[in-house]
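Reply to dn_fold:

You asked what the input looked like. This is it:
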Amino acid sequence: MTALAPVLMNRGGLWIGWAGAAAGADLKGLLTAFSKDAGYDLHPVFLSEEEIKGYYFGFSNEIIWPLFHDFQSRCNFMPQYWNAYLNVNLKFAEVTARHSRDSDYIWVHDYHLMHLAFMLRNMGLERNCGFFLHIPFPPPDIFLKLPWRDKIIRALLEFDLVGFQTMRDRRNFVECTEALVPEAKLSGRGNIVAISLKRRSIRAGCFPISIDFNSFAALASSPEVVKAAEEIQEALRYRKIILGVDRMDYSKGIPQRLQAIRQLFVKYPDLQEKVTFVQIAVPSREEIPEYFALKNEIEQLVGEINGQFTRPGWIPIHYQYRNLPRRELIAYYRAADMALVTPLRDGMNLVAKEYCAANVTESGVLFLSEFAGAAAQLQKVGAILVNPYDTEGTAKAIHRAFYMDTRERHSRMVKLRDSVRRNNIYWWVDSFLQAAFSRHLDDFPQETVDFRASVAFDPNGK
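and this is what came back:
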């Protein structure tokens, strides 16, 4: 929702999503006030505690999330999770049907709602529906392990347009479709292909999501953020700052990143007391035991590494487990000399793009996992790709960047920022809308109510 908010602002439309609360919560006043300020209407879907457990914590986070991120050993294929998933998708479809019009374009976001178009069609509603997957789509050898693989792939084919973050994800989807739906016929080449099935034509395309570049850059240049960044640098005694920012999740590779920092100080003692690593971990899914165990593992590693290398006046790792206000986060982006964005697998990873947008001095260095969706775009324009499993290789890349020529750092960051600026969140929406029905975002100007794309998604999913 954060990425799309500036696009929907004052353009009208409906936003349908789980309110993050159990059924019975009284949110009418809050939602009405928010809708008035935001310029678009919010309509909540309420779930029971049992539905939250089976649909959100169960099917979404114990099956689809790990499977689609190549962690199939972490999957818990409980049949009751599947039933809960279908029931909740039906609830979303019912709310969508109640509040949308025949002429609306329904844009569904992410893996929590892969059955929504199927449910709408079963209700006899022929709405134009698009779907965008924010996480990776797995190759057939992984996807075929899903017990409900046929039903999922056929449900996705009920959408008119299915969008993915990278060409690799789109290829994986097409290969899974060919394996599971032999009657489907593929045609076309390039960014968008067509799939013919039962007298319908479904399009599948690649639409890498982005950020509101100008908003991040402007805030990074504001006096408040400049002052906060200087205070961060002063507190760390003007040492080079390496920054990691992640939601607490096993797919983000935080333990591997910490081991790379350990290798950095072991292999390259010349950097001891010259650099400080700051890891910001945003709390997430704390009710799931696996995430609690991950938090303990990270905190233990931080303690071990700091115990091994700390010297008077220098602590090698500063670890924060909390949500940061936007201004404070951007201050850290601006203060950091390097950003270490090294997920084990990620659909896109917007932290990489946010760091570039906020690096208004154009002197930072971006290290990016080759398994992040953002690598497809940013490796060509200046990001330094690393394998997050190769902790020695990552340490070597950091050491090399520490001594990188100032002109090279500047050249890399200028290209990175230009790429993110050109391919921003508005470009992303434009590319999807053009593929959906040959229209542009400017066709829905602000201060009108013509942009009525009903967007359904789970606000706690990302």
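The longest strand covers residues 14-22.
Hope that clears it up.
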